[in-house]
């Protein structure tokens, strides 16, 4: 019998053999629903007739019922699906035969799950089975109305349970909208209201949380004449008393899962796998750090072995799996630095950008701290040498490090790493690899041809994989013909030097390359011009000068022949040997002008997209004086800030390489503009060293162009990076250089920006009069060109400098002038900064009520902006004003809210706030 499921959680229908089958007729649907709801129990004929005809059966009801049963049996797949058993019938659908049974099983499993994330996943799967109101197409059947209400109540219970699990995960901020709507739909549901109250309280909205309780209490009293129950009364009391039980759970450290997918068709290597298993089994997790170094020639299968074994032992490392391709033998010398690799690992381990130290040694120390005591599997693929690997080693012996390299990494081995020297597979294993990929039946028909293919590939796994892919895509061609083609190209091309002199790898590659269509072959050659570790379809399309929908099938053709690999959805890469091969083909096949045009198209694509994405991340940023020229056909664009961030994160490494490629190839205009377009993202993510690097490249490009404006913008990038790295003297020098360069072109807005940034640098260097002078000059320049936002920001900066100098009345005046400008512009970030400055001024003028109101306005704005750290610091300022005003309880409440946020962010400032709060608590009282 085909697999069958009756669906009740929506309209009543049947899925059998993967096909949806509607049930014709109200009475038949009702009969099926009653039988399905009985969950394999016998339902009497009398009860069936009563339910199906709603207590008013016709005289022919019994005969009609039997006819309906016969129809349903045919629909469900046979007589055995509905069994006649006195005194009636039962539905034999088997376990999971109804969507209700599946949902109940998932809900029960969620109750046994100890991990909140697991509970959420199970409950969401259960809730997803409801397609609308249950038994939706059985109108007017009162005998089934109670069942429909029961099924709706099961769903609502599951919704409450998933909300509770998400609260346990600390998702209170993201739940407020959902819970507000659920509470509106179910005005008497106390658990939903209690969850909404807790979510609001955890985001600092105590008054709103209490308001939810008052509305519920009023609804219950006016509509039902009852008071709220004890559970929600307890939540209300806890909120009034700031009970610590309401605080969100401590955030669990992230558990990264970065391993690539296991290798398709992995074959053989049993002795190596056994050796690695034995090494891990005998290594003491409480002793020295466990490291295994897998060395071997290019294309021998080091990465395949490492990834396959990593998947095999991953369950022994529950705290996460880290993976990085160090590009140690990249043909274009784009070797990944240890600093870049550590930063990627810190991101994966959940370290916020503003907490990442500037110094490499400090970053490595933080990385080791985050791994201390944790069981994490770390795969360092394609390492160049021991020096590249050593900074990436954790200090925890509970971790396992797997390193692959073409070199033997003798330095690591001397320090105790377990060596694995990977050699070519024996002929039998190589034959097995090929057979696995082309099919055992096909290989068995022509064993001699298979042997010849193995020999022609010199048993090199990479070459075997390419050959197998080509053979698999030509199933009607005999293997003898395939071997003959391979024989024809063998020896025609020079061997790839520097690796294995017994492997004519280029001959194997050329065989697959020659079988490509013209457009796919051209794209393969041009892919070598892309500077990054991988690329998406739009970048490939730009290289080839093709529409995306034309480039995608070409990439798929290359992937089918294993000349490229789609290692993540929509992103392609290829082995460095294949990159070398493609580079050689491009140099011999495509003219220098063609290659240069392809590079220009790629850079223009990146520049247009990056510029558009930057405008979404920082709309208030002044645009470039000469924006990038529009493309002949409009390319894809990000639609929102989140999409822009996602794109930058995916293209980050490729964009960095593209800046340097542009400069090296003489595309200086693209080089500096691309660096400018990346700046907002690099700053947001704390990549200030990278911002410095691209800033220097941009400055050199501007100098070659003889363009003062480009040079000034590059100097501003360098200054901003230096400021964030605490290098204030260097930042000041760059900004003074920018002032001079902007002045040559009478670019007053640029000069104003530089003065404003110089004011910040002066402030950080404790030169407050100097900071005030630069702020005033910025204000004059902004006003001279009618730059409204600049004028408002500069007014606040002047006010803040006055406040720092103790000139609080002048500070108040300037900030009050800034506010209406910022309100007109809708600049909430500027408004928040200005309210904070006003609060500081009023506080020191002794006007505490006004100071407190200003700080509260700032809190509201930064909360809407989603800037949790600034929200916490503003709460600290608010608390200080409340304490000075003589309201210690309000101050403690503000500091508690600041502490909650900082704890959630795992920010070191939490220690200071905790100490401040402890000092403010009366003896014997709870913090």
Structural notes for this entry:
The chain is of the alpha/beta class and 927 residues long. Among the domains are: 1-169, Winged helix-like DNA-binding domain superfamily/Winged helix DNA-binding domain (Arc Repressor Mutant, subunit A), CATH 1.10.10; 270-421, Rossmann fold, CATH 3.40.50.300; 427-514; 518-590, Arc Repressor Mutant, subunit A. It contains 41 helices and 14 strands. The strands form four sheets. Strands 8-9-10-7-11 form a five-stranded parallel sheet, sandwiched between helices. It has a three-stranded antiparallel sheet with strand order 1-2-3, covered by helices on one side. A three-stranded antiparallel sheet has the order 4-6-5. Strand 9 (377-383), helix 15 and strand 10 form a beta-alpha-beta unit. Helix 27 packs parallel to helix 29 and helix 39 (868-884) runs antiparallel to helix 40 (888-905). It is globular and about 100 Å long. The two termini are 65 Å apart.
């Amino acid at each position: 019998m085909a697999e069958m499921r009756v669906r009740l959680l929506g309209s009543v229908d049947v899925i059998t053999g993967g096909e949806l089958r509607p049930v014709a007729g109200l009475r038949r649907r009702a009969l099926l629903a009653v039988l399905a709801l009985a969950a394999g129990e016998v339902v009497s004929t009398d009860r069936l007739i009563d339910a199906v005809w709603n207590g008013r059966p016709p005289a022919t009801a019994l005969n009609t019922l039997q006819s309906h049963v016969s129809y349903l049996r045919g629909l469900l797949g046979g007589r055995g699906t509905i069994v006649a058993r006195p005194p009636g019938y039962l539905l034999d659908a088997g376990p999971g035969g109804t969507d209700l049974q599946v949902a109940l099983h998932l809900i029960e499993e969620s109750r046994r799950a100890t991990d909140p994330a697991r509970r959420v996943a199970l409950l969401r799967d259960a809730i997803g089975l409801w397609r609308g109101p249950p038994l939706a197409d059985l109108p007017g059947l009162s005998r089934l109305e109670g069942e429909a209400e029961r099924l709706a109540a099961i769903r609502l219970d599951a919704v409450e349970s998933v909300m509770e699990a998400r609260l346990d995960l600390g998702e209170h901020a993201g739940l407020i909208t959902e819970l507000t709507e659920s509470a509106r739909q179910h005005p008497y549901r106390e658990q939903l209201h209690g969850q909404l109250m807790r979510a609001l309280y955890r985001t600092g909205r105590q008054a709103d949380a209490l308001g939810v309780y008052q509305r519920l209490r009023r609804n219950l009293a006016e509509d039902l004449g009852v008071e709220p129950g004890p559970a929600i009364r307890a939540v209300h009391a806890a909120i009034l008393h700031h009970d610590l039980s309401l605080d969100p759970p401590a955030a669990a450290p992230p558990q990264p899962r970065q391993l690539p997918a296991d290798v398709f068709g992995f074959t053989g290597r049993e002795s190596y796998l056994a050796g690695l298993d034995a090494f891990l089994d005998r290594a003491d997790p409480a002793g020295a750090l466990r490291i295994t170094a897998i060395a071997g020639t290019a294309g021998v299968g080091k990465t395949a072995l490492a990834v396959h074994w990593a998947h095999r032992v991953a369950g022994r490392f529950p705290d996460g799996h880290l993976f990085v391709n160090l590009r140690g033998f990249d043909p274009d010398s784009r070797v990944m630095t240890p600093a870049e690799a550590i930063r990627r690992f810190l991101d994966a381990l959940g370290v916020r950008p503003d907490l990442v130290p500037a110094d490499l040694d400090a970053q490595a120390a933080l990385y080791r701290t985050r791994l201390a005591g944790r069981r994490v599997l770390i795969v360092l693929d394609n390492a160049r040498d021991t020096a590249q690997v050593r900074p990436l080693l954790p200090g925890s012996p509970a971790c396992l490090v797997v390193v692959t390299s073409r070199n033997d990494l003798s330095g690591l081995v001397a320090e105790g790493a377990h060596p694995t020297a990977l050699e070519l597979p024996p002929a039998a294993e190589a034959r097995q690899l090929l057979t696995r990929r082309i099919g055992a039946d096909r290989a068995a028909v022509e064993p001699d041809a298979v042997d010849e293919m193995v020999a022609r590939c010199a048993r090199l796994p990479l070459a075997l994989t390419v050959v197998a892919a080509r053979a698999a895509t030509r199933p009607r061609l005999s293997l003898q013909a395939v071997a003959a083609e391979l024989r024809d190209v063998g020896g025609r091309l020079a061997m790839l030097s520097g690796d294995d002199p017994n492997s004519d790898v280029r001959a194997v590659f050329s065989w697959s390359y020659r079988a490509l269509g013209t457009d796919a072959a051209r794209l393969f050659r041009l892919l070598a011009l892309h500077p990054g570790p991988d690329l998406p379809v739009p970048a490939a399309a730009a290289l080839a000068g093709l529409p995306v929908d034309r480039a995608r099938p070409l990439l798929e053709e290359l992937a089918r022949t294993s000349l490229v690999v789609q290692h993540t959805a929509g992103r392609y890469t290829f082995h460095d040997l294949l990159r070398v091969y493609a580079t050689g083909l491009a140099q011999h096949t495509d003219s220098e002008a063609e290659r240069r045009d392809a590079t220009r198209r790629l850079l223009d694509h990146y520049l247009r997209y990056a510029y558009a994405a930057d405008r979404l991340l920082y709309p208030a940023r002044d645009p470039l004086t000469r924006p990038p020229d529009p493309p002949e056909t409009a390319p894809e664009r990000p639609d929102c800030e989140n999409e822009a961030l996602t794109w930058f994160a995916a293209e980050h490494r490729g964009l960095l390489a593209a800046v340097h490629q542009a400069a090296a190839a003489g595309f200086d205009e693209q080089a500096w503009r691309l660096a400018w377009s990346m700046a907002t993202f690099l700053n947001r993510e704390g990549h200030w060293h990278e911002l410095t690097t691209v800033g220097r490249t941009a400055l050199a490009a501007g100098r070659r162009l003889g363009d003062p404006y480009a040079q000034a913008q590059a100097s501003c990038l360098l200054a901003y990076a230096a400021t964030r790295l605490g290098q204030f003297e260097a930042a000041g020098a760059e900004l003074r250089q920018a002032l001079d360069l902007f002045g040559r072109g009478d670019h007053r807005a640029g000069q104003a920006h530089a003065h404003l940034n110089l004011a910040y640098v002066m402030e950080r260097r404790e030169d407050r009069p100097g900071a005030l002078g630069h702020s005033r000059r910025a204000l004059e320049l902004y006003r001279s060109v009618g730059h409204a936002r600049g004028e408002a920001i500069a007014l606040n900066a002047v006010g803040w400098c006055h406040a720092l100098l103790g000139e609080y009345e002048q500070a108040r005046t300037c900030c009050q002038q800034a506010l209406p400008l910022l309100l007109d512009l809708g600049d909430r970030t500027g408004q928040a900064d200005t309210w904070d400055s006003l609060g500081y001024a009023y506080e020191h003028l002794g006007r505490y009520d006004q100071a407190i109101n200003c700080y509260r306005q700032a809190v509201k704005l930064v909360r809407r902006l989603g800037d949790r750290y600034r929200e916490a610091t503003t709460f600290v300022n608010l608390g200080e004003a409340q304490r000075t005003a003589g309201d210690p309880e309000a101050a403690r409440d503000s500091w508690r809210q600041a502490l909650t946020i900082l704890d959630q962010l795992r920010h070191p400032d939490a220690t200071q706030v905790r100490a401040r709060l402890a000092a403010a608590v009366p003896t014997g009282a709870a913090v």
